[in-house]
Amino acid sequence: KLVTGSDDKTLRIWERKMGVVEVLHGHTDTVQDVDVSRNGKMIVSGSHDRTIRIWNAESGETLHVFEGHKDWVASVQFSPDSSKVVSGSLDKTVRVWSIETGELAFEPINVQIWNAETGNEILSIRNSSVNSVAWTADGTHIIGGRSDGVTIWDSHNGEQLRTWKADNRWNSNVALSPTRTHVVTCKVGDKTAFVFDISTGERVATFKHDATVCGIAYSPSGHFIATGCNDGKLCLW
């Protein structure tokens, strides 16, 4: 099965041979992002209506509606154990939600860092929309692609562990290596994927494509990176 979201405000569940088998209604604006839990029992969707919805994948019933973002929800993803959902928004926050309680696991991640000697601002997550979010394979960290860089947080308490600046084009996708030593990113409308060393923030590899890169993922071993493009091709690096 495949799940898609659309600017017609719906989600659609597809079967390979049958096409659309179910249409889910509930959002009042464009459905920007969707994800399916690892056990296949739940679907999460994020929308321009500023809400996150959890759906029963079998019945199509809405299980939870999470409210709190002040702008479009740009990215959503289940934790590896399917107990939480992380959401990134154009309101410049990352939020982690407990599926069991329907409440925030901790306060929204919204960080500013200042130089203690000069008083100058060094980094402000408040001034940068969060366009893509992802969990590490073991569920211990969250990585977020912002409009000007990449940040990694501790998923248990929201502590910011590492951040670095990139160019001004939005990061549309991010993926962290299983060893948590490297991150791969791609940007909106770009035909290139980049690999960064987390400890230094240095770019260590560049993968060029013939078409726009739409998706990226690490292999479980961390030895390979898969990229998918809008020309229908999948590349393994």
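[next item in queue]
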Amino acid sequence: MNRAYISLIRGLREKKNRLETGFFMAEGKKIVKEMLFSHFSLEMMFLLENSDFLKNDIDKIPRDKISIIDEKYLSRISLLKTPDTVLAIFKIPSDKEISIGNNELILALDGINNPSNLGAIIRVCDWFGIKKILCSENTVDVYNPKVIQSSMASIIRVDVHYTNLLEFLSDKKEDVFISSLDGENIYNAKLPSSGILIMGNESVGVSKDLSRLSNNRVSIPKFGMKKIDSLNVAVATGILLSEFRRKNN
């Protein structure tokens, strides 16, 4: 592996380099295996010598897409403190047109800037059968390596779109629900089987402009100490989506 390739791979931790090259990286046996047999297109896979990864399926991967490396080189390109035995580079797919189906529950994210939170939210959506996430333009990039890692390959089954949420949602007929500390107790609220739930940044919440789109505000009741003023956004998303699904199951 030459220095140019090492530099390219390490550069994929930065959004500008991902946009310029059209590539993103994924690490770990579970994540890479699922992505290899998905709609994502493999550019190159790096395997440790004597790795048993895909032992029975390795012939399904074109030989020119596999590079055997040693631990020294893997440690230079990996972003993990303890590198796994496999790292892969995939092509970023073309943007899809955003469409909302009948009776579909959709999640919208406003200003979520922590990559681990976005990855966890994608995983939560996968669990609850949410197929589509709409992100504000200032939400962290879904192809950030930490997002990919924390999503645990759920990005395969959940479409993530970036758009101007205010413009996109302003003329939509679907019910819009805002996550807000002053909202109605989620356990008492009447919740439809379809609609759009908007989650905001942990520190500032949903923006004022987006909040004006709907009077449907929901909150999670607090049973602990009053000093705690917010929940992690991924945890809160899981609780709210669970209640939407439970009441319509």
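[queue empty]
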